[in-house]
Amino acid sequence: MKNILLSIALVFSFAGYALAQFSPSYSPNKYQQNDWFGEFGGTTSMYVNPAGIAENDQLEVTGGFFSTISGAAMQEYGSVVMPWGYKHSFGFTFFENGATVDNSVNGDYTENAYMIGYAYRVFHWLAMGVNLSILQVDQFNHNKQFTMGTDIGFSLNPINNSKLGHVQIGIAFQNLLQPVIANASEEGQESYGFISPVFVGGKSDDGYAIPANLNLSLFYRGLNRALEIKGEISIIDFFHDEDEGGKGKMMEFGVSATYFITSHLGVKGRLTKEGYPVIGATVNVKDVNLFRYLGLDLEMSHDDLIEKKNRGFLWNVRATARFGDTREESIGEARYRRLKIEPENDYRAAMRLYLNRDFIAASYAFGKVQTKYPTFHLVDQAAFYKGKSFENMRMHLAAQRVYQEAIRKYPHSDQIPKYHFQLMNIDYKEGRYGDAMVKYQYIAQHFPRSDVKPDADYIAGQIKFEQGQNKDAVQLLASILPGNANYFYARYTMGIAYSRDSQWQEAKGAFNDILTQQASNQSERDLQDAARVKLGHIYFAEPDGLAEAAQLYGQVTNTASPFYEEAALALAWSFLKVRDTKNARPFTTWIIRNRPDSYLISEAYLVEGYCYYMEGDLNRAEVSLNRAIQLTENPTITKEQRDSAKVAYDGMKENFDSVQVRALDLARQLPTPRVEQKRAALRPDFERANREIETFAEFQQRVIQSDRFEASRQRVLGDAKLTSAVVSTRKAQQPGGGVSPGLDALGDLDDL
Fold first, then answer.
1. Do residues 311 and 36 make contact, with C-beta atoms less than 8 angstroms apart?
2. Cβ distance 458 to 473 under 8 Å?
3. Rounded to the nearest 10 degrees, how much is the dihedral formed by the CA atoms of 358, 359, 364, 369?
4. Of 402, 315, 323, the residue nearest 367 (C-alpha)
5. Which residue, 464, 402, 418, is CA-closest to 437?
6. Region 696-710: what's the mean pLDDT?
7. What is the DSSP code (8-state) at residue 197?
8. Of 86, 132, 495, 534, whose CB count within 10 A is highest?
């Protein structure tokens, strides 16, 4: 460090001698050409080069003053610089110059300057800037005026790395549009008024123009940021007017260096453009409570060291404070919000819509995440839930296209198996069993260890079950283990498949598997009720299983359960089987009163007729049996109804496909006002088409139930007709009003 300081002292001594020999002693109309405040390379160097503030990294406030020891001549200074994003910087600087003349009765001489600056980073290594300067002149209360000028500058940063350091080169024209100081009239110009500037190289007929100066600057920071060197050359009065006298294009230059002993303390030396040396120090603290950076600079010199100027001791104090985030932090925060926070917020908002079952809005919201944030880490999941949103609205065409597009766009996503499974599931829902099984084979081959493999096994097992291939169905469904969401459903289907093949012990095992598991939702609790009923039916058919069957039926106690009426009817049959009509009839009465649209109501009337018959009430028995016959005379869903619904659906499907395509297209677009208008216009068409597709889906479920009921319908119809004929015969033999006290036993009841 000692050698470095000695070297700097030698350089300054030589430069001081050179300045004494070649520095001009006079330049006409020089304005604020001292370099006490404006240093290129500093972040508030707007005065020297307006492009310099592009290097500003934080909101910075600077204040200071320069003065003689007597205080007779002073200059105050204040500056605010604010970065905006990566490319923009704004600045405001205020200079106050004042001088007192002894025994003056007209006041002091004042020149104030207000500078508004803007810098733009064209490239990472090039910035340009411009200043608007407003000068306020008060010449001893005799000549008062405002005038304006403009500066322009460029800053180049060709080197900026840890090895070579930071190099910054600047070129600027001060007063490219020159402010004009008007001459005072004989009476004096007492009031303020604006004076127009002159253009480059122009002349003023009624005053003098502030010189236009060319500033060339160099700034270097190196030695691990320990050394800063600044050099400036100014060509004064670059567009000199010979009529004003003096010499134009006079050259001044200055140099300064700062060495940081520590990161918080530095020593500095300077040779000013005016030709005298300056020494000083700088101290700073960082990351204190209020400030991110707080620095204090002190510089001192004597005006008579090189050339007599009779101002004596000079000193300068400057304080700099920086606040808030740096450019990097602000840009990083903005990028973080754009790439992380904003997409996550939008993703969560879309999930809330999805969980609230507002699927059309959810599809648009997930589409926004895909379109606006294509690099978001959950964009593949957004695509999955967009497809699920369409799928939940039975918009299978749109969902299918979403999954296919996602497979192409996100080939390395861990959602790929899910996309393929959902395509398989859509084929299953649409009844395209062959296409679904082709997709199942692809999943089994390419994703055998994925989370969707058990789900695919379940769908494949259901397809085999519906095709009547019970063994294949059982083989596929058996691989689904407890803990899987489809476990209850798989075991239930296995139980039915075993029952179809009369494998009663295996069926019991499948249904008992359901009952021994802890249900986690209402759907699983309903399946447990269904398993109790089906298991009860198996025991009911066994010679000694009636008690076990009745116990299982009795465990279905929730009247809201979709399987309660079947359990109630089975209990009625159980009591009827032991001739306990008193306990059997309340269950049939409950079904008749509370489930008028149930497929089991006709059988409830049949059991009720049996009860009345066994009690000897032939009239009531005949009424109940005839009601059972009426309800089972025709299929629940007729062929004409099926054909009519199919024709209506086919006519609607083309329009529904068009709605799906339009909705999918709108889900790919950002929610601009125009897009929102299109979405609002589509919603009535969507809601109408959705109601129609839901109505048809409900009708299809009724068709399935009707087909399942068909075998029972024929049995109930035959039994009701036979028993009704027996009742009619008994009534004819008992002319006592249809009451037969001896009919407490029905010999053929077990066969019926």
1. no
2. no
3. 90
4. 402
5. 464
6. 77
7. P
8. 495
Q: What is the DSSP letter of 423?
A: H
- Please give the span between the terminal C-alpha atoms of the chain, in angstroms, as a whole number: 115
Q: How far apart are CA 532 and CA 534, in angstroms?
A: 6
Closest CA to 274 of 253, 245, 250, 296: 253
Amino acid in the structure at residue 589: T
Task: Please calculate the CA angle 666-672-676 and round it to the nearest 5 degrees.
Answer: 55
| pLDDT at residue 241, as a whole number | 74
CB 590 within 8 A of CB 600: no
**Helical segments of 337-415, H only:** 342-355, 359-372, 379-392, 396-409
Which residues lie below 8 Å from residue 249, measured CB to CB, with a gap of 6+? 235, 236, 237, 238, 240
The string of DSSP codes covering 633-649 is SS-SS-HHHHHHHHHHH
Q: Which residues contact 539 (CB under 8 A, 6 or more apart)?
A: 545, 546, 548, 549, 552
Q: Give the per-residue pLDDT at 138.
A: 83
pLDDT at position 671 over 70: yes
Label each residue of 716-739 as H, E or C: HHHHHHHHHHHHHHHHHHCCCCCE
Q: How far is it, in rounded angstroms, from Cα 444 to Cα 475? A: 14
- What's the helix, strand, coil split of the chain in %, to 5? 45, 25, 30
Amino acid letter at 571?
A: L
**Degrees, nearest 5: CA angle 536-537-539:** 65
Say how far apart CA 146 and CA 191 lie, in whole Å.
Answer: 10
Helix (H, G, I), strand (E, B) or coil at 336: helix
| pLDDT category of residue 32 using cuts at 50, 70 and 90 | very low
φ, ψ dihedrals at 679, nearest 5°: -65, -40
CA–CA distance, 739 with 619 (Å, rounded to integer): 8
Token duo for residue 643: 């054909």
Residue identified by tokens 């309800």 is 631
Tallying the residues shown for the chain, one arrives at 752
**Strand 313-323 to strand 165-177: parallel, antiparallel, or no bridges (unpaired)?**
unpaired
Q: Which of 171-185, 389-403, 446-460 has the lowest mean pLDDT?
A: 171-185
Spatial CB neighbours of 316, under 8 Å, sequence gap ≥ 6? 36, 37, 64, 65, 66, 67, 278, 280, 297, 298, 299, 300
Alpha-carbon span 504 to 508, nearest angstrom = 6
Q: Which residues pair with 284 in a beta bridge?
A: 295
Q: To the nearest 10°, the Cα dihedral for 728, 730, 731, 735? A: 150
One DSSP character per residue, 437-497 reads HHHHHHHHHH-TTSTTHHHHHHHHHHHHHHTT-HHHHHHHHTTPPTTSTTHHHHHHHHHHH
Nearest CA to 220 out of 157, 306, 134 is that of 157
The least confident of 49-58, 330-339, 366-375 is: 330-339
Q: Model pTM greater than 0.85?
A: no
- Choose among 345, 354, 441: nearest CA to 391: 354
Q: What is the pLDDT of residue 674?
A: 92
Q: In the block, which residue shows the tokens 């790395």?
A: 161
